[in-house]
């Protein structure tokens, strides 16, 4: 591939775009005489005049106009390609394995804030589990204290929760015994409701409501007013604060459980930034609002 010298092409492109050797020189940080010499060298290489020179300046020839479009397009493609590669090289990826419920109700609404603060860090999110967690830089898990180094993000205490529409339609629920006539919705199994009611000395009522294998499906059913579910209050702070859901009783189950942020053994600087940000966001969410039981 036989190409003209790059320096002559840069000088010609600027001069053709500005229709001035002096303006091109200012843009390129050189003298007008140097721009003129580069253009002459290019004309000699091509064997075609690119500018008409006269006392009051220069003007592109037809060949100069045609070649100017070609050179400008080519240099722009080179610049764009270089920018893409440079950005890709500078961007770092942090792998976060998380429960889907935490992604949906805690992380997703806040992730744009992290992106605005750290546009050079790309967060790759996968499900937390045996296969994914071991490969992740950070993991968000649920339960008692994990065996690895972990920080408690927020409590996993669960309380009876429903939409205000269901409370208006089927309430009031002034006493725990009133729940025996309610439509109770279940996350994964009936065990959570059975244990919660047992604290009050009551059995799980016959004909209990549907079981949802995914917590996010349960929350969708709650929001549409289908019944009452045992939900982690801290995880649904946003929905409770904006009135989509309400807590019926302050009595909580799973007081010994938390949502934990677990770090890998070899933390990169970017992973540390995301870890610190997640902890700060969790602490900030704890300070907002009073989510005591509703009275309607």
From TrEMBL:
Pfam family, one: HTH_1
Swiss-Prot/TrEMBL keywords: DNA-binding, Transcription, Transcription regulation
InterPro entries documented for this protein: LysR-type_TF_proteobact-type, LysR_HTH_N, LysR_subst-bd, WH-like_DNA-bd_sf, WH_DNA-bd_sf
Residues covered by the HTH lysR-type domain: 4-61
Family stated for the protein in its record: Belongs to the LysR transcriptional regulatory family.
Protein name, UniProt field: Transcriptional regulator
Organism per entry: Rhizobium nepotum 39/7
């Amino acid at each position: 591939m036989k190409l003209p010298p790059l320096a002559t092409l840069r000088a010609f492109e600027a001069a053709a775009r500005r229709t001035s050797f002096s303006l091109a020189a200012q843009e390129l940080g050189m003298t007008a005489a140097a721009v003129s010499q580069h253009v002459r060298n290019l004309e000699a290489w091509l064997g075609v005049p690119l500018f008409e020179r006269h006392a009051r300046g220069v003007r592109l020839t037809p060949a100069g106009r045609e070649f100017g479009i070609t050179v400008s397009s080519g240099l722009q493609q080179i610049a764009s390609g270089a920018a893409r590669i440079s950005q890709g090289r500078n961007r770092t990826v942090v792998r976060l394995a998380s429960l889907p419920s935490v992604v949906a109700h805690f992380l997703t609404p806040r992730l744009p804030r992290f992106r605005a603060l750290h546009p050079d860090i790309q967060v790759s999110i996968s499900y937390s589990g045996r296969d994914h967690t071991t490969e992740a830089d950070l993991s968000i898990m649920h339960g008692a204290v994990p065996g690895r180094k972990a920080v408690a993000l927020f409590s996993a205490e669960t309380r009876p929760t429903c939409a205000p529409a269901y409370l208006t339609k089927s309430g009031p629920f002034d006493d725990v015994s009133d729940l025996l006539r309610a439509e109770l919705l279940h996350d994964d199994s009936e065990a959570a409701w059975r244990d919660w009611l047992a604290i009050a000395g009551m059995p799980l009522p016959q004909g209990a409501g549907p079981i949802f294998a995914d917590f996010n499906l349960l929350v969708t059913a709650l929001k549409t007013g289908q019944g009452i579910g045992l939900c982690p209050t801290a995880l649904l702070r946003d929905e409770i604060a904006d009135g989509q859901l309400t807590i019926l009783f302050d009595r909580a189950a799973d007081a010994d459980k938390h949502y934990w942020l677990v770090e890998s053994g070899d933390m990169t600087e970017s992973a540390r930034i995301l870890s610190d940000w997640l902890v700060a966001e969790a602490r900030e969410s704890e300070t907002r609002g009073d989510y005591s039981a509703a009275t309607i």
